[in-house]
Fold this protein.
Amino acid sequence: MSQGQILIVEDEEIIRASLRRLLERQGYGVTEAGSVHEAETLLRQQPDLQKPEASEKFALIISDLRLPGKPGTEMINLANGIPVLIMTSYASLNSAVSTMKQGAVDYIAKPFDHAEMLQRVAEAIEKQSNLNAESSAKTNAEAMDNEHLSNSENGFNGILGQCDGMHLLFRQIKKVAPTDATVLIQGESGTGKELVAKAIHENSRRINGPMISVNCAAIPETLIESELFGHEKGSFTGATAARTGLIEAANGGTLFLDEIGELPLEAQARLLRVLQEGEIRRVGSVQSQSVNVRLIAATHRNLRQLSSQNEFREDLYYRLKVVELRIPPLRERGNDILMLAEKLLAKTCKKMDLELFSLAPETMAAISQYQWPGNVREMEHAIERAVILSEDNIITPENLDIDVRVKQTLFRQDSEELQDGLTLEDYFQRFVLEHQDQMTETELAQKLGISRKTLWERRQRLGIPRKKTTAT
Ligand SMILES: Nc1ncnc2c1ncn2[C@@H]1O[C@H](COP(=O)(O)OP(=O)(O)OP(=O)(O)O)[C@@H](O)[C@H]1O
């Protein structure tokens, strides 16, 4: 079950080997090269390189930026349509931004978090396959279809949601996107703040400009000013060359500052000047230059409270909250919780090339009851883990590994009410209706943890008699 072949270009053997292990554990095939030259030879050996649909072709190239001989950016020219993910240290984050402009699909800072690397890899491959699919047959009908998919009744622009809170959010996004207003997105961790920022950018006039995302909490405090605003040569120890900042790199597009509450006060003052004057001054420079950037900021913290404690500039806070969007936490999204779980389950199965798994009724109950403190991100991880650990294609609460104590009490009595007025019988009914065409009565009873006799009795009581008459 290969997820695709990946070429790693990295001169440091230890990093290369650990990346190989990480990717192979996820089912990717891996080929290694220690330099651009070596990678070039490997690429030339690919027999069907000219054919975009060739199965032998690498699905992705992951290249370090600094390599002996030629730099990693050379890989972009050599890749011939294969997406290139650049790895770089924080110190060279700016060069990474310019490599994005040269055509890299994404960049990731070293040392990288394993989960993040896997996510970037999956996204890069998916993005490329979407692009391939688009360019191979782009008809008007297809374009309409895509529009339907991205804005289907399940959500908007890839953000799944059907509850009132999410509908309100979608309406707000559609209203604010075409304007140039600064937006402040409030939401707990994992609620989809970056997705919302992306939706705003993609529905704005700046769609063809860059969108630069910066997580203020992930960049060391000492580097953040020079990363954001750039610096002149010699402006501080170690500034051996002048460098463009991320704000300048977002010129003509959107700058997304995630976790803005973590921005140090000095950097806040500089940012405020950029917003007020539309000009940027690099660290160590006396000259300003104009920039045209739309700012979207996000935070999980209470900025009003932070500003009352003098930890966040009040004037910047008021500037940011021109439009404030609140993303509800997952636990407040009612039936969306199960809808998301099912969609994420289907997505995970597809990604892992598995047939579709389903959720056992007690798993549905546990999912609806659980508080999801890590929101959608936690659910994504829980479902992925469950699919890996599940012994058959039905996910049990134990596979999910969320706090399912609630299950024991809820399942003691059939009549007991679950959250949102749903009863165990609702789950029973739903499970039977969804699975009865694919499962025998024996299998259904087993999955429900009841005898066939009880299954039959409940069917009678709930008015869902068995459809098939064949013996099971
Ligand atoms: N409504 C949604 N529909 C589909 N996927 C979602 C939704 N909300 C979040 N996700 C997914 O959950 C993960 C976390 O989302 P995202 O990074 O946007 O959250 P965040 O609020 O920015 O998190 P953090 O504050 O921790 O950075 C992503 O993989 C994203 O695709």
